[in-house]
Amino acid sequence: MTEVVSVDPQHPDPEIIARAAEILREGGLVAFPTETVYGLGADGLNPVALARLFEAKGRPATDPVILHIVDLEALPQLAREIPPAAWTLARRFWPGPLTLVLPKQPIVPDLATAGLPTVALRMPAHPVALALIRAAGVPIAAPSANRFGHTSPTTAQHVLEDLAGRIDLILDAGPTAIGVESTVVDLTRPVPTILRPGGLPREALEAILGPVAVFDRSVAGPAPAPGMLPKHYAPRAEMVVLIGSGGWLRLRLRELAIRYLQEGYRVGMLIAEEDQPAVADLPVEIAVLGSEGDLEGVARRLYPAMRDLDARGPDLILARDFGTRGLGLAIRDRLIRAAGGRVMKAEDSP
Ligand code: TXA
Ligand code: MG
């Protein structure tokens, strides 16, 4: 049985937190809110709890998890060879949507790091998450609280949809603020490298570090062929992402939708407010992510909109891209992964 308990997002009831922490210390699984998405927590130093975590998510043991911490003292306890840049980033951006990859200390179980010599660490900016980690007294391993490959959860209801009966407790503190996962930065390379763009924009990192590399499938060269990327963050429907901007993008969105309709697809569209007039007359299901200029709003609505649109039953979802500035990079990354790499450029012919 999975119990769902409401907690105040700002001032969580200490008794509820103490109970959740007790479950974690006993090797159980507790889903909790962070500022990015809901995480599925387990004692990050307990291999038995970690094994249950992978099992509950259906996650392959080859995919390492992030350890969540509550104070800077935990950094040298879990990581070693910590470069000055790591301390600078930690002081500047923690708690917040930034995950640092560093060489691991032997205390970190191999299951947490999938056998890698490095560990991913993050201090989340959510009072419930911080209270829970503090009460548990151990680093908390927490992948997003979804079945492996599914869309990440931004509400407790999403967690329940994916993991009911598979975990012990869900702490419900309402929808999450950022809506996409943390930015993962590898500091073990000669140049700091973003492994996964996320809630902390690249520009914020570069303001402190200077140029950073982006290990990003969507901007690291030509669009890959369909099916080349592992599907992740994925809806049930097939998905295609249209990259481009302005009038061209809108024109091609409309053309593509009409083409898919003619081919007999039930079409869903993930669009910006500004695109609405261009497709308003078409018999398609529409989810509006927000204005092109409001990337925070788009990021926050992205996963719930994908879930809602998917539930309305289209066989094909056509999504538009929001560029690479600020949170645009993370939004593009998630759209392309949800589409399993099916990308079209607005300039290309179909
Ligand atoms: O915002 C977030 O980061 C959320 C919340 C719950 O904190 N967590 C999250 O965890 O997104 P997960 O497991 O869904 O994604 C963790 C990412 C994966 O892409 C994983 O490959 C990467 O971090 N990662 C973890 N350890 C790593 C390591 N040692 N080296 C490289 N990448 C690592
Ligand atoms: Mg995930």
Please bin the fraction of helical residues. 25-40%
Strand content range: 15-25%
Please outline the major beta sheet.
11 strands, mixed
Structural class assignment: alpha/beta
What is the CATH class of the largest domain? Alpha Beta
- The helix/strand series, from N terminus to C terminus, equals EHEEHEHHEHEHEHEEEHEEHEHEHEHE
Bound molecules: threonylcarbamoyladenylate, magnesium ion
| Mean of pLDDT | 93
Low-confidence spans: 219-229
Number of domains: 2
Number of E-state strands: 16
The total of helices stands at: 12
Please give the CATH architecture of the largest domain. Alpha-Beta Complex
Plain-language structure description:
This protein has 350 residues and is of the alpha/beta class. The chain folds into 2 domains: 3-214, DHBP synthase (Alpha-Beta Complex); 238-345, Threonylcarbamoyl-AMP synthase, C-terminal domain (Rossmann fold, 3-Layer(aba) Sandwich), CATH 3.40.50.11030. Helices cover 33% and strands 19% of the residues. It is built from 12 helices and 16 strands. The protein has helices at 14-25, 47-57, 74-78, 84-93, 110-113, 127-136, 156-163, 202-209, 246-262, 276-279, 295-311, 328-338; strands at 3-6, 30-33, 38-43, 66-68, 98-103, 118-122, 140-141, 169-172, 183-186, 193-196, 213-214, 238-243, 267-271, 285-288, 316-320, 343-345. The strands form 2 sheets. It has an 11-stranded mixed beta sheet with strand order 1-8-2-3-7-4-6-5-9-10-11, sandwiched between helices. A 5-stranded parallel beta sheet has the order 14-13-15-12-16, sandwiched between helices. Strand 10, helix 8 and strand 11 form a beta-alpha-beta unit. The chain starts with a strand and ends in a 5-residue tail after the last strand. The structure holds threonylcarbamoyladenylate and magnesium ion.
